[in-house]
Design goal:
Residues 1-27 form the HTH lysR-type domain. The chain has 265 residues and is α/β, with parallel strands linked by helices. The protein has three domains: 2-55, Orthogonal Bundle (Arc Repressor Mutant, subunit A), CATH 1.10.10; 61-135 and 228-253, D-Maltodextrin-Binding Protein, domain 2, CATH 3.40.190; 137-226, Periplasmic binding protein-like II (D-Maltodextrin-Binding Protein, domain 2), CATH 3.40.190. The chain is built from nine helices and ten strands. The strands form three sheets. A six-stranded mixed β-sheet has the order 4-3-5-10-6-9. The chain has a two-stranded antiparallel sheet with strand order 1-2. Helix 4 (74-85) packs across helix 9 (241-253).
Amino acid sequence: MSHHLARLEAATGAKLVQRIGRGIRLTPEGQLLANRAAEILGRVDAATSELAAQVGLQTGRVRLAANASTLSTLVPKAAATLAQAHPGLQLSLFDRHPVEALEMLRHGEIDLALVFRHAEAPAEEEGLRLEHLGDDPIYLISRQPDDSLANHRHSAWIGGCHRCQDELNALCLHENFTPCIASYSDDMVVVQSLVAAGAGVATLPGLALRAHRRPDIHATELPGRHRHIYAATYGDPPDPPAVTAVLAALTETTTLPTPIPTPPA
Protein backbone atom coordinates (compact mmCIF):
# COMPACT_ATOMS: atom_id res chain seq x y z
CA MET A 1 0.00 0.00 0.00
CA SER A 2 2.81 2.43 0.96
CA HIS A 3 4.48 1.72 -2.39
CA HIS A 4 1.32 2.63 -4.30
CA LEU A 5 0.81 5.77 -2.23
CA ALA A 6 4.38 6.86 -2.87
CA ARG A 7 3.91 6.40 -6.63
CA LEU A 8 0.63 8.32 -6.53
CA GLU A 9 2.21 11.19 -4.59
CA ALA A 10 5.09 11.28 -7.05
CA ALA A 11 2.67 11.35 -9.97
CA THR A 12 0.48 14.11 -8.51
CA GLY A 13 3.27 16.13 -6.91
CA ALA A 14 1.22 16.42 -3.71
CA LYS A 15 1.36 14.88 -0.24
CA LEU A 16 -1.80 12.80 0.02
CA VAL A 17 -1.60 11.23 3.52
CA GLN A 18 -0.33 12.29 6.89
CA ARG A 19 0.80 9.87 9.58
CA ILE A 20 -1.02 10.18 12.91
CA GLY A 21 0.46 7.93 15.58
CA ARG A 22 0.12 4.41 14.21
CA GLY A 23 -2.43 5.44 11.62
CA ILE A 24 -2.75 7.82 8.71
CA ARG A 25 -5.26 10.38 7.54
CA LEU A 26 -5.86 12.09 4.24
CA THR A 27 -4.47 15.54 3.66
CA PRO A 28 -6.80 18.08 2.02
CA GLU A 29 -5.15 17.21 -1.28
CA GLY A 30 -5.64 13.50 -0.58
CA GLN A 31 -9.31 14.07 0.29
CA LEU A 32 -9.84 15.99 -2.96
CA LEU A 33 -8.30 13.14 -4.95
CA ALA A 34 -10.36 10.55 -3.05
CA ASN A 35 -13.58 12.43 -3.80
CA ARG A 36 -12.71 12.63 -7.48
CA ALA A 37 -11.72 8.96 -7.53
CA ALA A 38 -15.13 7.96 -6.15
CA GLU A 39 -16.81 10.11 -8.80
CA ILE A 40 -14.68 8.57 -11.58
CA LEU A 41 -15.35 5.03 -10.37
CA GLY A 42 -19.07 5.79 -10.28
CA ARG A 43 -18.97 7.02 -13.87
CA VAL A 44 -17.00 3.98 -14.97
CA ASP A 45 -19.59 1.71 -13.33
CA ALA A 46 -22.41 3.64 -15.03
CA ALA A 47 -20.69 3.47 -18.41
CA THR A 48 -20.10 -0.25 -17.96
CA SER A 49 -23.80 -0.79 -17.20
CA GLU A 50 -24.88 1.35 -20.18
CA LEU A 51 -22.50 -0.47 -22.50
CA ALA A 52 -23.71 -3.86 -21.29
CA ALA A 53 -27.31 -2.78 -21.90
CA GLN A 54 -26.53 -1.57 -25.40
CA VAL A 55 -24.54 -4.67 -26.35
CA GLY A 56 -27.36 -6.77 -24.91
CA LEU A 57 -29.85 -4.75 -27.05
CA GLN A 58 -31.73 -3.50 -23.99
CA THR A 59 -31.14 0.03 -25.22
CA GLY A 60 -29.58 1.88 -28.15
CA ARG A 61 -30.45 3.88 -31.25
CA VAL A 62 -30.18 3.12 -34.96
CA ARG A 63 -30.52 5.87 -37.58
CA LEU A 64 -31.92 4.68 -40.91
CA ALA A 65 -32.49 6.57 -44.16
CA ALA A 66 -34.61 5.36 -47.08
CA ASN A 67 -36.61 6.80 -49.97
CA ALA A 68 -40.37 7.29 -49.67
CA SER A 69 -41.53 4.08 -51.40
CA THR A 70 -39.31 1.91 -49.21
CA LEU A 71 -39.91 3.93 -46.07
CA SER A 72 -43.69 3.59 -46.43
CA THR A 73 -43.77 -0.17 -47.17
CA LEU A 74 -40.77 -2.22 -46.05
CA VAL A 75 -39.64 -0.21 -43.04
CA PRO A 76 -42.87 -0.19 -40.98
CA LYS A 77 -43.04 -4.01 -40.92
CA ALA A 78 -39.38 -4.24 -39.92
CA ALA A 79 -39.88 -1.56 -37.24
CA ALA A 80 -42.79 -3.49 -35.73
CA THR A 81 -40.76 -6.72 -35.66
CA LEU A 82 -37.81 -4.89 -34.10
CA ALA A 83 -40.01 -3.32 -31.42
CA GLN A 84 -41.34 -6.74 -30.42
CA ALA A 85 -37.91 -8.37 -30.25
CA HIS A 86 -35.99 -5.42 -28.75
CA PRO A 87 -38.39 -2.86 -27.21
CA GLY A 88 -35.48 -0.84 -25.80
CA LEU A 89 -34.05 -0.03 -29.23
CA GLN A 90 -34.95 3.30 -30.81
CA LEU A 91 -35.23 3.47 -34.61
CA SER A 92 -34.84 7.00 -36.03
CA LEU A 93 -35.97 7.37 -39.66
CA PHE A 94 -35.00 9.83 -42.40
CA ASP A 95 -36.74 10.26 -45.78
CA ARG A 96 -33.86 10.56 -48.24
CA HIS A 97 -33.08 9.59 -51.82
CA PRO A 98 -30.34 6.96 -52.29
CA VAL A 99 -27.55 9.41 -53.19
CA GLU A 100 -28.32 11.57 -50.14
CA ALA A 101 -28.70 8.53 -47.88
CA LEU A 102 -25.31 7.12 -48.92
CA GLU A 103 -23.68 10.52 -48.35
CA MET A 104 -25.14 10.61 -44.83
CA LEU A 105 -23.89 7.06 -44.27
CA ARG A 106 -20.34 7.95 -45.32
CA HIS A 107 -20.35 10.98 -43.00
CA GLY A 108 -21.56 8.98 -40.01
CA GLU A 109 -24.89 10.82 -39.83
CA ILE A 110 -26.85 7.56 -40.10
CA ASP A 111 -26.06 3.91 -39.38
CA LEU A 112 -27.98 2.20 -42.18
CA ALA A 113 -29.37 3.16 -45.60
CA LEU A 114 -31.96 1.42 -47.78
CA VAL A 115 -31.14 2.16 -51.41
CA PHE A 116 -32.08 0.95 -54.87
CA ARG A 117 -29.96 0.41 -57.96
CA HIS A 118 -30.90 -0.51 -61.51
CA ALA A 119 -29.10 -3.23 -63.43
CA GLU A 120 -26.91 -0.91 -65.52
CA ALA A 121 -25.85 1.28 -62.59
CA PRO A 122 -22.11 1.50 -61.80
CA ALA A 123 -20.86 -0.23 -58.66
CA GLU A 124 -21.13 1.68 -55.40
CA GLU A 125 -17.95 3.15 -54.00
CA GLU A 126 -15.49 1.20 -51.88
CA GLY A 127 -16.26 0.95 -48.19
CA LEU A 128 -20.00 0.38 -48.61
CA ARG A 129 -21.36 -3.06 -47.75
CA LEU A 130 -24.62 -4.02 -49.46
CA GLU A 131 -27.08 -6.70 -48.36
CA HIS A 132 -29.55 -7.59 -51.11
CA LEU A 133 -33.13 -7.54 -49.82
CA GLY A 134 -34.96 -8.24 -53.08
CA ASP A 135 -35.94 -6.96 -56.51
CA ASP A 136 -38.79 -4.50 -57.06
CA PRO A 137 -40.52 -4.59 -60.48
CA ILE A 138 -40.78 -1.36 -62.49
CA TYR A 139 -44.09 -0.25 -64.00
CA LEU A 140 -45.01 2.11 -66.81
CA ILE A 141 -47.61 4.56 -65.48
CA SER A 142 -50.00 5.83 -68.15
CA ARG A 143 -53.69 6.16 -69.00
CA GLN A 144 -53.67 3.11 -71.29
CA PRO A 145 -53.96 -0.54 -70.19
CA ASP A 146 -51.31 -3.03 -71.38
CA ASP A 147 -49.09 -0.16 -72.48
CA SER A 148 -45.42 -0.24 -73.51
CA LEU A 149 -42.42 2.08 -73.50
CA ALA A 150 -42.27 1.95 -77.31
CA ASN A 151 -45.67 3.63 -77.45
CA HIS A 152 -44.23 6.73 -75.80
CA ARG A 153 -41.20 7.66 -77.87
CA HIS A 154 -42.70 11.10 -78.43
CA SER A 155 -44.69 11.47 -75.22
CA ALA A 156 -43.98 13.91 -72.42
CA TRP A 157 -42.34 12.17 -69.46
CA ILE A 158 -42.26 12.90 -65.74
CA GLY A 159 -38.77 12.55 -64.30
CA GLY A 160 -37.67 12.08 -60.71
CA CYS A 161 -34.55 12.03 -58.54
CA HIS A 162 -31.06 11.67 -60.02
CA ARG A 163 -30.99 7.89 -59.64
CA CYS A 164 -34.60 7.63 -60.86
CA GLN A 165 -33.64 9.63 -63.94
CA ASP A 166 -30.68 7.36 -64.68
CA GLU A 167 -33.03 4.40 -64.36
CA LEU A 168 -35.57 5.92 -66.77
CA ASN A 169 -32.88 6.77 -69.32
CA ALA A 170 -31.56 3.19 -69.19
CA LEU A 171 -35.06 1.76 -69.68
CA CYS A 172 -35.78 3.96 -72.69
CA LEU A 173 -32.34 3.31 -74.17
CA HIS A 174 -33.31 -0.34 -74.51
CA GLU A 175 -36.15 0.86 -76.75
CA ASN A 176 -33.75 3.12 -78.70
CA PHE A 177 -35.07 6.51 -77.64
CA THR A 178 -34.38 9.23 -75.09
CA PRO A 179 -37.34 10.33 -72.94
CA CYS A 180 -38.48 13.94 -73.28
CA ILE A 181 -38.80 15.15 -69.69
CA ALA A 182 -41.55 17.72 -69.33
CA SER A 183 -41.98 17.68 -65.54
CA TYR A 184 -40.08 16.57 -62.46
CA SER A 185 -41.41 15.15 -59.20
CA ASP A 186 -40.11 12.71 -56.60
CA ASP A 187 -43.55 12.33 -55.03
CA MET A 188 -45.44 9.14 -56.01
CA VAL A 189 -48.77 10.90 -55.37
CA VAL A 190 -47.88 13.88 -57.57
CA VAL A 191 -46.52 11.65 -60.36
CA GLN A 192 -49.74 9.64 -60.54
CA SER A 193 -51.85 12.79 -60.39
CA LEU A 194 -49.93 14.32 -63.31
CA VAL A 195 -50.33 11.12 -65.35
CA ALA A 196 -54.07 11.05 -64.58
CA ALA A 197 -54.34 14.65 -65.75
CA GLY A 198 -52.64 13.83 -69.05
CA ALA A 199 -49.47 15.79 -68.26
CA GLY A 200 -47.19 12.90 -69.20
CA VAL A 201 -46.23 9.31 -68.51
CA ALA A 202 -43.79 7.94 -65.96
CA THR A 203 -42.27 4.85 -64.40
CA LEU A 204 -42.71 3.84 -60.78
CA PRO A 205 -41.53 0.85 -58.73
CA GLY A 206 -43.98 -1.66 -57.33
CA LEU A 207 -43.33 -0.45 -53.77
CA ALA A 208 -44.54 3.04 -54.72
CA LEU A 209 -47.77 1.54 -56.08
CA ARG A 210 -48.19 -0.51 -52.91
CA ALA A 211 -47.96 2.71 -50.92
CA HIS A 212 -50.36 4.68 -53.18
CA ARG A 213 -52.40 3.69 -56.23
CA ARG A 214 -54.84 5.96 -58.05
CA PRO A 215 -57.85 4.26 -59.62
CA ASP A 216 -57.67 6.33 -62.83
CA ILE A 217 -54.17 5.36 -64.02
CA HIS A 218 -52.84 2.12 -65.46
CA ALA A 219 -49.67 0.37 -64.32
CA THR A 220 -48.04 -1.95 -66.85
CA GLU A 221 -45.20 -4.10 -65.54
CA LEU A 222 -42.05 -3.86 -67.67
CA PRO A 223 -40.87 -7.45 -68.18
CA GLY A 224 -37.44 -8.17 -66.76
CA ARG A 225 -36.98 -4.63 -65.41
CA HIS A 226 -36.38 -4.31 -61.68
CA ARG A 227 -34.90 -2.14 -59.00
CA HIS A 228 -32.46 -4.02 -56.79
CA ILE A 229 -33.12 -3.10 -53.16
CA TYR A 230 -30.18 -3.13 -50.73
CA ALA A 231 -29.49 -2.39 -47.09
CA ALA A 232 -26.19 -0.49 -46.98
CA THR A 233 -23.73 -0.12 -44.13
CA TYR A 234 -20.31 1.51 -44.13
CA GLY A 235 -16.93 0.46 -42.80
CA ASP A 236 -15.39 -2.83 -41.78
CA PRO A 237 -17.54 -5.58 -40.23
CA PRO A 238 -18.88 -6.56 -37.83
CA ASP A 239 -21.74 -4.09 -37.49
CA PRO A 240 -22.80 -2.93 -34.00
CA PRO A 241 -25.35 -5.28 -32.39
CA ALA A 242 -28.21 -2.78 -32.78
CA VAL A 243 -27.54 -2.35 -36.52
CA THR A 244 -27.34 -6.12 -36.91
CA ALA A 245 -30.74 -6.41 -35.20
CA VAL A 246 -32.31 -3.92 -37.63
CA LEU A 247 -30.79 -5.75 -40.60
CA ALA A 248 -32.21 -9.02 -39.29
CA ALA A 249 -35.68 -7.45 -38.95
CA LEU A 250 -35.50 -6.11 -42.52
CA THR A 251 -34.39 -9.47 -43.90
CA GLU A 252 -37.13 -11.29 -41.99
CA THR A 253 -39.99 -9.02 -43.07
CA THR A 254 -39.05 -8.05 -46.65
CA THR A 255 -40.90 -9.98 -49.34
CA LEU A 256 -40.19 -8.93 -52.91
CA PRO A 257 -41.75 -8.83 -55.36
CA THR A 258 -45.30 -8.58 -54.11
CA PRO A 259 -48.45 -7.90 -56.17
CA ILE A 260 -49.48 -4.27 -56.47
CA PRO A 261 -52.99 -3.46 -55.27
CA THR A 262 -55.81 -3.43 -57.79
CA PRO A 263 -57.45 -0.01 -57.89
CA PRO A 264 -61.14 0.11 -56.95
CA ALA A 265 -63.57 0.05 -59.84
